[in-house]
Amino acid sequence: MLKPVIKTLIALCLSLPLIAAAAAPKIAVANLAYEEKVEEYFRVVAASSKESFSAGNTHVRASSNSQYLEVEGTKVRIDRGELRRFTADIKGELLKLRSVQVIEARGYKPTKDNEKLFDVIARIKRGDFSGADYVLFGTVSAIDVQNNANPVAGTSTVSMVRSMELVTDFSLVSTKNYSVKAAFSAQGDGSDVKLVGREGAYVNHHNGKIVTEVSKTLGRNVVEQLTEQFQALGVMQAAERQGQETSPRASQNVAEEVMVLTPGLVK
User: Fold this and answer.
1) Could you read off the pLDDT of 170-187 as tens digits, one per residue?
2) Minimal CB count within 10 Å: which of 35, 37, 114, 257?
3) How many C-beta neighbours within 10 Å does residue 1 have?
4) Domain containing residue 210
5) What are phi and psi of 97, to 5 degrees?
6) Is the pTM value of this prediction over 0.85?
7) For 98-152, what is each residue's pLDDT tens digit?
8) 80: Cβ–Cβ under 8 A, 6 or more apart, which residues?
9) Residue 260 to residue 267: CA distance in whole angstroms
10) What domain count does the chain have?
């Protein structure tokens, strides 16, 4: 009598992870896009001369023509591209939720002036995010790197600080109907501090440490805001936390039920 019930319960428990995986949204995280104005100084100098000479029985003719050109100024061009950093920790934070499937996005194929880089809908139609339900698309709005020297009070020591701040605008776009499910700005910060005996001394900062800190803080900030705005992801995260809190008690109850069964009763 109990044997079919136990088999049914076991089959249901085994199918729960598959049901959860099927319901988990598939999100592709695109490389961060950037656009910046680049000013370039130019100077052009050109010189040319032309001479002619002719002579006849009654005349002699000579002429000379010289030209000189000098132009200088500044030209501005728009540089567009992708940062192939800072997205790994975003993917890692999403995977920590255990309620999301992360899909690998295809890198942008460069074109003339990269004008289509920011056209998310065109890239979805082109198949850059194939297999994903949503695309998390980010554009860099500001990168700030500063070097500061701060004297330590009461000593001759100087604290040399290099810091980096990255601000990025994100949108979560549906690949089905192109609607925006979440939109926010996220920030990542990192710094490295060295103590030296005098100001102006050479300092070799650990730039790798700074970039790592920026990437990790950005990833945490992105997922925090994403779960606040994207209702489906927030509900899944809350359910996951509730399941973690109740799982010890549930497993204890199952153990107690198994312990009261005896082989003689199972037919």
Assistant:
1) 999 999 999 999 999 999
2) 37
3) 7
4) 2-36+82-262
5) -65, -25
6) no
7) 888 999 988 887 776 677 888 899 999 999 999 999 999 999 999 999 999 888 8
8) 33, 34, 35, 113, 114, 115, 117, 118
9) 15
10) 1
